[in-house]
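Render this sequence as a predicted structure.
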Amino acid sequence: MSGRPLLNRRLDGLGTTIFAEMSALATATGAINLGQGFPDTDGPESVREAAVRALRDGLGNQYPPGPGIPELRQAIADHQRRFYDLSLDPDTEVLVTAGATEAIAATMLALLEPGDEVIAFEPFYDSYAACIAMAGAKRVPLTLRAPSFRPDLDELRSKITPQTRLLLLNTPHNPTGMVLTAEEQSAIAALAVEHDLLVVTDEVYEHLAFDGATHVPISTLPRMRERTVSISSAGKTFSFTGWKVGWVMADGPLISAVRTAKQYLTYVSAGPFQYAIAEALRLPDAYFDSFRADLQRKRDLLGDGLRAAGFEVYQPQGTYFITTDITPFGEKDAYAFCRALPERCGVVAIPNSVFYDDPDAGRSQVRFTFCKKDDVLHEAASRLRRLAG
């Protein structure tokens, strides 16, 4: 064989995801896993039963339609009208995907060409970097800085060049928990219109905004509908992350472009689960309100425990993650800290430095998830108090 590397050079340096690495560490050590963001309880029983019923009735056991089953596409359109007063054609403006991760991949592959630039909030979810790289484009980070993690809009303007193709937004933002304000979204929208940019927005935590913060899709703003691709999924809202049901919403020409790429990735997926999620999206408002209130309570529970242990805690406005700083312990290297934490305390967390192009920007930051049972959070907080000692 030639001396050429086996791995495509575009993916050089990406390797195994930090989530796989830290979850394996949790399994090997028996530590409490507050790293990877998956709940330790299932979602509503009625939704599980809907999946069982679909399996038994033979619904979705064979290939579902490429764009997704009509019932789910209609439910997604109804959800957008119900919560955001957005009108979508379920036949031409909604596409079902294998979770939001495939939605992001298909969108990047469809809309980007080599040499295009993508401006994305840093720290960013690790699949963003991989998807931009696979498309042959260049990521341009806009760094969100502690303690507020608000975007610097003047800096955003300065990063736009003739090669800028799209803005990749994530609100509520993983891992910082920042939720864009109406004023920030309006300013970002104005820049997108001024420079004729596409906007791709990851909204998987749309129902998890706390303390009065609200999520409003940027596609609702003037002149944004025709240039925005909105992405969401069922995993975070209904606690069925393993089902991998996501969706893309956009004007017809954008959906057509994304569908062209998506059909050569998974083609279709999650047939019976699509029927169940169609029912989940029609749950009453009480479900969404209770879900948000419960996660806010868990955020406060873990946040208090982290402060008691000695962490500097950056209070998140949304998602189910808390970013902390380990400087009060006299430590600076979050990656080394997280590698040692299972042995020191029996807890697993994620170093935020892996979400930055510039690791120094988040070198002392550690992310914990609070989408766990109360007794697990109490036990984790108790273990972490060993650090204070």
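Summary. The first strand starts at residue 32 and ends at 33. The chain has 13 helices and 13 strands.
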